[in-house]
Design goal:
By secondary structure, this protein is α/β, with parallel strands linked by helices. It has a single domain, classed as 3-Layer(aba) Sandwich (Rossmann fold), CATH 3.40.50. The protein is built from 6 helices and 6 strands; from the N terminus they run E-H-E-H-E-H-H-E-H-E-E-H. Strands 1-6-5-4-2-3 form a 6-stranded mixed sheet, with helices on both faces. Helix 2 crosses helix 6. The protein is globular, with a radius of gyration of 16 Å. The termini are far apart.
Amino acid sequence: MQSCVPTAHIENEWSAPDQKIDSTKMFQKILFVALLKDNPTRRIAEDKLVAEVRPRGVASYSYLGAVNTTPNEGLIADRLRQDGFDGVVVMRLAEVDKNKNYVPGSYPSYYSSWYGYYSSSYPAFSDPKYYAPGGFYTIETNVYSLVQNKLVWTGVTSAVNFTDTNKMMDNVISMIRQRMKSQGLIK
């Protein structure tokens, strides 16, 4: 008889105080960025995230490809607001290692804005040697409000390294959705 092992679970999370707002009212247009293992995995994750909030979500690979992301944060944030975005969700692969444990601590200053987080995480995403095969993925997801210009929720999820990326992302997204619902951030 096989035992049932969870395929993904939340290791750590934080939400902004007094942020218990229905995201369907909070965010009308959300940019989803998934800086994961590679571009195919990125597209799978972003497409799945967008499907969760249809028609309010936009995948970064279909939007940021046409936007020069090298200027400063203000220019990018202004462009996003002009295009009607009021929320950004950034998901990144933080670590691939089955022998390490995530130890929560204080968040670095670049977490305070979506662009600071994105611009500090993108170099590792674009470096193919950064991602080695392993047993578990540690995936960090941050939800930013462009209107409030702040981080409203963050969570660190550990997931089994499946050969089926679709199944792994389904499990991670399900855990994030479940936790955000329990926190009153979404319905």
